[in-house]
């Protein structure tokens, strides 16, 4: 065996090892996520609690445990971008809408994948509720309706309730708390 052939063999062995490592990593990242916890922050950057998103049926359920919020009924949506820049959270973009529909469960041309039922904050500023969404998944991030698609999404709480029909955002008022959802 001459020297350059030996070198070639070493190189081939090294490349094989590398490709096996890469394949193993791809297999790992392709594993669907079953549960993801998201921290929610208000316009001042203070934590107002968490949302635990779990796979449920063909969608997800969101377990909200929040505090220091204004009492009353609030809209809850998934928004398109994995960005929550305070104080207005405009960077989160519009509602997550891979199915390209209009806003609201009461809209004949609705609804967005990111639309969800309103929830209520108690007089002491807390809420502990579970809200379902049948139109998004955690998944691997490769599904169009994955909350991890295109770099992720965000979970948003609004100052007021969603009227479930007014495009594009249900007249829900200011964005008051936001959490980034990434894999
Ligand atoms: Cu919203
Ligand atoms: Zn919407």
Oligomer: single chain
Terminus-to-terminus distance: 49 Å
What's the total helix number?
Answer: 1
How many β-strands, per DSSP? 9
CATH architecture level-2 label of the largest domain? Sandwich
CATH superfamily of the largest domain: Superoxide dismutase, copper/zinc binding domain
Order of helices and strands: HEEEEEEEEE
Instruction: Give the % helix.
Output: 10-25%
What class, by secondary structure content?
Answer: alpha+beta
How is the largest sheet built, in terms of strand order?
5-8-9-1-2-3-7
Q: How much beta, percentage-wise?
A: 25-35%
Using the alpha-carbon principal axes, give the shape: elongated
Our Rg estimate from Cα atoms comes to 21 Å
CATH class of the largest domain: Mainly Beta
What is the count of structural domains?
Answer: 2
Largest sheet properties: 7 strands, antiparallel
> What's the pLDDT, averaged over the residues?
91
CATH topology call of the largest domain: Immunoglobulin-like
């Amino acid at each position: 065996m001459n020297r350059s052939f030996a070198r070639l063999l070493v190189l081939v062995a090294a490349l094989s090892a590398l490709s096996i490592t890469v394949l193993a990593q791809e297999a790992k990242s392709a594993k669907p996520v079953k549960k993801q916890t998201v921290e929610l922050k208000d316009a001042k950057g203070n934590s107002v609690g968490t949302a635990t998103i779990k796979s449920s049926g063909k969608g997800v359920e969101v377990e909200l445990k929040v505090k220091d919020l204004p009492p009353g009924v609030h809209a809850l949506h998934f928004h398109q971008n994995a960005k929550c820049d305070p104080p207005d959270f405009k960077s989160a973009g519009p509602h997550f809408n891979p199915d390209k529909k209009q806003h609201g469960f009461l809209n004949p041309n609705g609804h967005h994948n990111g639309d969800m039922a309103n929830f209520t904050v108690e007089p002491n500023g807390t809420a502990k509720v579970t809200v379902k969404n049948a139109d998004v998944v955690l998944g691997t991030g490769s599904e169009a309706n994955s909350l991890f698609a295109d770099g992720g999404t965000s979970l948003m709480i609004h100052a007021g309730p969603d009227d479930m029909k007014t495009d594009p955002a249900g007249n829900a008022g200011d964005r008051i708390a936001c959490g980034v959802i990434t894999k």
